[in-house]
Each structure stands twice: as C-alpha cells, then as structure tokens.
Amino acid sequence: MTPLAIGFLSLGGLLVLLAMRMHVGIALGVVSLLGMAAIRGPNAAIAAVADLPYQFVAHWTLSAVPLFLLMGAIVFHTGLTASLYSAARNWLNFLPGGLAIATNAAGAGFAAVSGSSLATAAAIGRIAIPEMLKAKYDPGLTAAVVAASGTIGSLIPPSILLVIYGTFTEQPIGALLIAGILPGLLTAAVYTVLILTRCIANPKLAPRTSEHIPWSTKWSSLRQVWPVPVLFLAVVVSIYAGIATATEAAAVGAFVALLIAIFQRRLSRLAMYRSVMEAVSSTGSIFFVAMGAILLTRLLALSGIPYWMVEQLNASEVEPLVFILGVSIIYLVLGMFLDPIGLMLVTLPVLYPLFKAMNMDMIWVGILVIKYLEIGLLTPPVGLNVYVVKGVAGDRISLGAIFKGVTWFLLAEIVVLALLISFPAISLWLPSMIIN
Questions:
Q1: Virtual CA dihedral for 243, 120, 203, 98, nearest 10 degrees?
Q2: How far apart are CA 227 and CA 23, in angstroms?
Q3: Nearest CA-CA partner of 6 in 46, 33, 24
Q4: 151: DSSP letter
Q5: Distances from the Cα of 299 to the Cα of 32, 57, 75, 184, angstroms
C-alpha cells in the first residue's frame, strides 16, 4: 500500500474514532502512531512520539495559554463578573430587551479578560439568567443570548484559540490577537441589533421595565468595572505599542489581574487555589489535544497528502471565494460534532497547505477559522456553549428552547461571516497598523 493510501486510510479511521466519541487527543495519537508505523516502521513512529509532542508544547509562544487562562480564572473567582453585569444592566435597562442587551455587553466585556468562550458563558449565565427570568423574559431568548455572547471570547483578546492557531501556523500571535478586536466588536454589535429588532417586533419576548435607575447609581456601577478596561489595555496596549510580545503580554495580564484582586481585597487562598487549578487543568486538556494534532501533521507529511491536495487544487483552478465557501461548509458541518480546539487541530494539518497554496493572508484566515469555531459552539448536537448554559439554567429552561433561541444568533453569525469574507480589512486593518 502506498504512503498516500495509508494517509487517506488513517484519516478515515480518525473520522470513525471521532464518530465513536473517542477523546480527540487519543484518537489523533492512535491514528498517527499506527499510520507512521505503517509508512516508516514502528521505530520511526516511536521516535516521533518521543520527540514531536515535547517540541511543540515546549514552544515559547504557547506559554501564553496557561497565563491567559490564569488571568481569566482570577477575574472569575474574585467576583468581577457580578459588577460587570450590574453596570451593563444599569445603563442599558431602558432599551427594548435591555437585560438581554446588557448580557451581551457583559459577555463581550468578560471576553476581554477571560480568553475562553465556555468560561464567559458560565460566568455571565450564573448572574444574567436568574435576572432575565425574574423579569419574565422569554426563556429561549434568555439562554440563547448568554450562549451566543460567550462565543465572543474566542475572538476578543486574550483568545486562547488564536494563540494556538498562531503557534500551529507560525503566525505572529500579537497580530492575531489584535486582529480579533474588530471582528469581536462587530459580532457583539450585530447581536445587539438582532436582540433590539426582535424585542421591538415582539415585545412579549422581553417585557419593558418601569424601573428608574438614578444617574448616581449608574456612575457608581461604572466605577466598579475599572479592572476590565485596565486588564484589556494591559494586554492589548503592551502588544500594540511593542512593549511586550504576546507571551509577555499574557504574563503582564496575569500579574495585573493578581494585583487588582489584591488591591480589591478579593484574593482569598481558596480563590487563588481554584484559579491555579482551573488554569492547570484547562492547559493540560488543551495541550493533550495539541500533541495529538502535531503527530497527525507528521503523518500527513510522510503520506504526501498535503502535496497531493495542493496539486489537485492547482489543477482544478478553483477561485479563492469558492474555496473559502467550501471550507466554510466543512467547518460548519464538522463543528456540529467536534469541540472547537479538536476541530481546529484536526483540520489545520490538512487545510493549512491549501490556504498557503491559494496565497491567502493567514491572519485573515485565522479570524475566519475562529469564527467557524464560534458557530460550532452553538450548533447541535454538540454546541458546547448551549450545554454550559443548560447546566447553569437547570430545569428552568429546556435544551430544545435553548437551541431554538440560538437559531436566531446563528443567522446573525452568517451575516458577520459574510462581512468578514467580503471585507478582509475588518480583520487586517489593526494588525497592519502594528506592522506599519
């Protein structure tokens, strides 16, 4: 059997294992080990397993992952989420669907200091869901806005997914993080328009409140959320101004989060312990999948699949727009069944050479890939953000109602995706400012 045939057979085996719900990291490792053994022999496969995973996870830029995770964990466990939602509620409550819009705004704000979609959805959901249900908001809208706003954490820096993408594709992490700002804000803005439009068209979704909030209360609540812009600026400005690399900016962010928690007298031993353990656990889970993905990359290189696919792509003369639309369909379908990190690391070894062959800007491609992963967080049957929100809501909201409510936000995501594909400058303008 030729190496090319072994490679395709290995990819088929990988899909079977994933369909059987085997852990992504284990499936990647098993398939890669057996495939390399079939092509080069058992000794070569063992040597690759002994060497490649360590080389990848020891990469300096990946140090940003545990540091960003630690920063977000400290922020969450020291109670910043509550004050963030309270401020958004006080300022936006007068709008149709004001609590839902406040939840969306708070989700975008928390995303700027968490780096994780799941953490954002869980943190905001614990506070926003009881508030909206108490105000007689539609349960589907209530849960859906929490799940959807959580996805913004994948784009607005610090983004763990962008760090992993940049490391895997050897793109500048700082430029990628900066590139996620405008698409993240665009997503939040489109969500806001969607909520406002739906609540004006159907006032029963979100009954208007007669509560009058004094200006003194509004300004007072704003004073409680100063750590959010401080943390965001500590990370972004240090990168934008060239003061620190992305990895160093992650360390700055974690350190500033620690100082803020100490200054506010919120850093207990228990909070610190939980923050560290959460960061360590999440890092281990992410790196385990990444090690399997780097082994798959070596298997594909030995089999010659990337080179064969590039040849087929060049021979077919596919237009870049058609190619991007085809990739979009692949990600949207696979996103229904795989978690975001697993999906990205399974597909990148195959698609990265094709992106390069099409001479596409890999910063722009990275933002599109993260946007695809965001959509996967909302689509059934996996939809991790939906299940996180269901866990927070408990029996108060059914899973069917959440998925039904999320459908509206999936339509909004298609609009955002179309804008990002049609106008690459949305993703590339800020990074170009850094380069210039």
A1: -50
A2: 37
A3: 33
A4: G
A5: 6, 18, 40, 35
Residue with tokens 């793109």: 171
The identity of residue 26, as a single letter, is I
314 burial level (CB within 10 Å; 0-12, 13-18, 19+):
exposed
What phi and psi, each to the nearest 5 degrees, are found at residue 245? -75, 175
pLDDT digit string (tens) for 265-301? 888 888 899 989 988 888 888 888 888 888 888 888 8
Task: Over range 146-165, report the average pLDDT.
Answer: 87
Question: In this predicted structure, what is the pLDDT of residue 19?
Answer: 80
Task: Dump pLDDT digits (tens) for 113-136.
Answer: 777 787 788 888 888 898 889 888
Task: Provide φ and ψ at 94, rounded to 5°.
Answer: -75, -15
End-to-end, the C-alpha distance of the chain in Å comes to 51
Residue 128, Cα to own-chain centre: how many angstroms?
21
pTM, two decimals, is 0.85
Helix or strand or coil: residue 237? helix
pLDDT digits (tens, 9 = 90+) for 344-401: 888 888 888 889 888 899 999 999 999 999 888 888 877 888 888 888 888 888 888 8
- CA–CA gap between residue 160 and residue 205 (Å, rounded): 34
Tell me the pLDDT tens digit for each residue of 172-203.
888 899 999 999 999 999 999 999 999 999 99
Tokens (6 digits) for 69: 């995770």
For residue 158, cis peptide bond before it (omega within 30 degrees of 0) = yes
Query: Interior CA angle at 394 toward 389 and 400, to 5°?
Result: 65
Specify the DSSP element, H or E, that contains 37. helix 24-40
DSSP string, 312-332: HHHHHT--HHHHHHHHHHHHH
Token pair for 167: 């490391």
The two structure tokens encoding residue 309: 């696919």
